[in-house]
Amino acid sequence: MHFTTPIAILASLSLALASPLESLEKRTTGQITYYDAGAGIGACGQNNGGKLVAALSPSVYSASKCGKSIKVTNSANGKSVTVKVGDKCAGCDANHIDLSETAFKKIGNTATGVLQGTWNFV
Questions:
Q1: Is the dihedral of CA 79, 84, 86, 88 positive or negative?
Q2: What is the DSSP letter of 70?
Q3: What's the predicted TM-score (pTM) here?
Q4: Residue 25: which pLDDT band, with cuts at 50, 70 and 90?
Q5: What band does 49 get if pLDDT is binned at 50, 70 and 90?
Q6: Which of 65, 73, 98, 105 is the most exposed place for a label (fewest CB within 10 A)?
Q7: For residues 79 and 48, what is the distance between their CA atoms, to the nearest angstrom?
Q8: CA 86, CA 21: separation in Å to the nearest integer?
Q9: Among residues 25, 118, 37, 40, which one has the least CA distance to residue 85?
């Protein structure tokens, strides 16, 4: 009897299924606000004016997250935008994400000021 083929198939299937799941991160629900990303140099060392970027709370931010992609979704209208981490938001709690005005306008109206939604690393 030859047992390596079924075992090899199961092992390959297990690896194929595990890889995408390992890249998924927790979805966070909270406030979405905006800021003037071009008003200086962000915590990641760049001026982010006009870019699709986000500032993270001190409890979530780390330099290793600079440039990582985050999908942000407005709960009220279902619109989403993908941004890159570009700054730290000193006034944000762990569930709060601060978007550049450019990014915020992709999912909501700046006159609203504060949106409710979700975000996660992608």
A1: positive
A2: E
A3: 0.79
A4: low
A5: very high
A6: 105
A7: 22
A8: 25
A9: 37
- Taking the C-alpha atoms of residue 13 and residue 100, their distance in angstroms, rounded to an integer, is 41
Residue 17: pLDDT band (50, 70, 90) is very low
Residues 6 or more apart in contact with residue 80 via CB below 8 angstroms: 71, 72, 73, 74, 107
Rg (CA), the chain: 19
| d(C-alpha 67, C-alpha 27), whole Å | 18
- Evaluate whether 70 touches 97 at the Cβ level (below 8 Å): yes
Mode of pairing for the β-strands spanning 97-100 and 80-88: unpaired
Strand 69-74 relative to strand 80-88: parallel, antiparallel, unpaired?
A: antiparallel
Going along 13-75, which residue ranges are E strands?
A: 28-35, 53-56, 69-74
Closest Cα partner for 92 from 20, 48, 31, 9? 31
